[in-house]
Amino acid sequence: MIKKISIEQLRVGMYVHDINCGWLDHPFLLNKFFVPDEATLARIVRTGTREVYIDTALGDDLPREQPPTAGRDDAARSKDEVDRELLAELRRLAGARARARARVPARGCPPAKSFFTHAPRRTRPSAW
Question: 27 with 47: CB under 8 angstroms?
Fold first, then answer.
């Protein structure tokens, strides 16, 4: 199962499914890899990412006695839950964009249009 965890919860033995940053923003060849030692864990922390996705089918899971991060309800949400929330947020933003676009006049700004259509043409100076 794919889970989103905070970087503080990442441990040696876990399988990182997605490091949650751009491919050029981390020193690893792939985005999916096993965390074999503390050195690899330190390299992941140095990337500056706050959260990673782990695959519990290929590596260790969070310990059962470890409570979620204080004040955060997304400490161990599944990828499907995160995807649903992201989709809902994208739909909300798309609706806001459509409403903002509806307020823009369809034919453009009349003063700007008249400026460009009625501006005097520049001619070459007679000294040339």
Answer: yes
